Every structure is written in structure tokens, then in C-alpha cells.
Amino acid sequence: MKKKIRSILIIAIIITLVSPSSAQDDLMDLFENEEPVTDYVYATFKTTRISLGQSVENPANGNLIFDIQHHFGRLNQGAYELFGLDQATLRLGFQYGITSWLSVGVGRSTFEKTYDGSVKAKLFRQSTGAITMPVSISYFGSIAINSLKFADTSRTNYFSSRLSYAHQILIARKFSSAISLQLTPTLIHRNLVERKIDDNDVWAMGAGGRFKLSKRISLNLEYYYIISEQTSKDFHDSFTVGFDIETGGHVFQLFLTNSQGIVEQHFIPRTSGDWLKGDIHFGFNISRTFVLKKPKEFAN
Amino acid sequence: MKKVALLTAAIIICAVPFYGQHFITKNGHISFYSDGPLEKIEAHNKQVNSALNIETGDMVFKVLMKSFVFEKALMQEHFNENYVESDKFPNATFKGKVVNMSDITLTKDGTYEADVEGELTIHGISNKIEDKGTFIVSKEGIHGNSKFNILLADYDISIPGAVTGKIAEEIEITVDVKLKKFSK
User: Fold this and answer.
1) Domain A58-291, second-level architecture
2) What is the pLDDT of residues B113-126, one digit of tens each?
3) Between A and B, how many residue pairs show a Cβ–Cβ distance under 8 A?
């Protein structure tokens, strides 16, 4: 009998001693079984543009981004034009994050002396946990104002003739830390077109992706397929291949594209270059971020 | 007699994980700071989990890396994506002990020195650390403070070639937790 008692006690002590959870793990367990939180995906793309077109990323709340965008001339112009480097289309712009989900932008590009204003809103964010959402969805809208002098001053010219609009739904998914893809249904509306047969409304479907080659360099591809019939006859689909290189405060985007224009109203429905003929423009984007509104942890 | 033995056995098994009293917080504050020639880096996390067993001196921290807030959002993104790889290693943890717990009188208000040692895990890499902190005991609970340095290399956090020498390789970590008595 006594033997039995002793053996029960010994077994109990052994169980206690070999029990794998240490006292510290028990303390750690106090933080398990927490209510599930929503874990939002971040950094689907490195910047607010894939290369030419918009990505689902916005400037962070209170951040101002200064953009310098450059598309040189065509490579096939030869040595006399230094393979296009003698000409350039330039856009300078600012973007500002008003909240974590809403941003506004303004810019001016040399192509047709165009001013642009835009808004981008995050509607859904890809997430796991309490709220599961497979994709991020944003809306991008912009208005472009051609400020060239009117070609024909003998007729009545309206200011509204200068305006064109872009509407895009950006649908993106970060599949892994290395791969993100985006679909971009797009509508471009021009108030005035050159010929009667030209489309005032141009529909297009964009597709883009980012493939990380290392922690700081990614390969980006971007393609806009023109759906509207007349425009697809007269112009080429925009195709861009490029790299994102980030160095800390800056992100450099270097790319080759068949598009001369920089804003959506130009490069989506009006790309005249043909990749197969060598109508390829070298281009780059540089963006610099300024923190105008500090996070509350840093507000003194 | 047998019943007594069984009961004793049951008590030994059950009681061990539960004995002692816990002080706990879920919104402790940990910040880190490094001053390199290129970038001053500072980040704050105000959602730190920490618990202390006042009988045994066992102390733990659990820190969600994504909760660190940087002044520059881009820096925060780099921190999560390139430096600590938060998707792969979401939490940093500390499991250790206040070695001189018996010297700290919790019934008397005052400031006590605490010798803490244990295992710090960041970026999936664990290292033994040992440091001093202070415990300020009051009726509100235990207010723990500590400041110590770690080397990024010890945790396999690599600085990219382009910015080597511009970002400090040692960072200063400040811990500030207000632990309150835990009741279930």
C-alpha cells in the first residue's frame, strides 16, 4: 500500500519536472488566445506607381511626395539624337496623403503643356485575420488640362475642350513578399477629339506586376490593352518594363516603354510607339518623400 | 491514505503552473534609437505585452514588430520588409528572470534596482542578455524601466551594402512598462 502511495507521488513529481512548459512559457500563455486582429498587407508595391501607371499604394498619411518623371526620346533615332537622350518629356508633381486612405496630387508635364489634378482613395485593403480580404481595391481619378494655345483662333474655342479625364479601378493582390499583381480597368474621356470617328471614351484594361529580385530591387511589368475599337486601330498598347531600386529615402524607377506621354490621358489612349520597330523610350521616376505631419508618437 | 496521496499528487501537478501572482501589461512602451551618420532612427511601440511573476521573478515580453511606428512611413516599411522581416518573424520575445526578486519589497513603495537576465529573440535569433533596470513600486503597481544596447549583427539583421557605415550597427532599446496586478 505504502509503495503504491509513494509511486503515485513520484509519478506526480516526475510529470511536473518533465512537463515541457517552463514557468516563463506559462507567463507567455497569458498573451495567447487574444481576440484575432486584422492584419493588413503592406508594401504591395514600392511606390504609388508601378512604372507609368498608378499602383494601389498611396502616400502615407501626412507625407508629401515630390515626383520627377522623365521619358526620353526614342532609342531608334540613332546617334545623331544620342538615342533619344536629346529630347525629353518631363513631369513634375506632388502627391499628398490627407489620410491613410485618401490622397491628392497635382502635376505639370511638358507634353501639350498639360496640368493635372488627381485623387486616389483606398476602398478595400488586402488583409487576413479578423477581416479577410483577398485583394486591395482603390479608385484613381484625374483631370488633365491641355494649356497649349488654341490652334484655330478663328472659331469659338471653349475651355472645356482642353479637359480630359481618367477613371481607374485598381485591383491588386500581394501574393508573396516577392510577387504582387494588379488589374486596372480604365476609362479615359476626352471632351474634344481631333476627328469625328475618334473615340471620346476610351476603355482599356491594364495589368501590371512586381517581381522582387532582391530585397531592394524589383522587376516591374506594365501593360495597357486598349479595348475601344477606333483607338486600338490608330494607337499601340502601352507596354513598360522596368526596375524599382530603393536606397532608403529615395525610390528610383528606371524603365523602357513605348509611351511618350506621362499622365494616364496621354500614355493609355495615345501611345504611338511600336516596340517591334524600336520606338522605345528610356525613362525614369525619382520620388522624394517629405514628412509634413508626424505620427502621434513623434508629435511634441 | 491513498486518497490523500492522489490529492497531493493532483495538487502538485495542477498547482505548479498557477502558483504565484502575476503582474501584467498589454500597452507597455518600447522604443529604440540609433544615431548613424546618415540616418537617426527612432521608433516607438506602445502595445508591448509583458508579464512578471512576483513569486519566482520570471518575466516575459512579447512585442509585435509591426506595431513599431517610425517618423517616416518609408522607413517603417523598410524595417518590416527588409530588416526584421516581420512576415516571417512577427514577434520579438524576451523570456527571463528578475534574479534579485527577493530583494524587491512589493509591500513597500520605493525604487528598486532589478537585475534581469534571460533570452532575447529578435528576427528568429536568440541571445542571452543580462541587464539592470529599475522597478518603481507603488500602489498602482510596478513601473519597470530599462535601457540597454544590442548589436544588429547578433540578430542577423544585415545592413545593405549601399548604406553600410551610414546606419549605426548598435541600437539603444528603452523599456518602460507599467505592470498591474493581474486578475482573471
Assistant:
1) Beta Barrel (2.40)
2) 999 999 999 999 99
3) 114
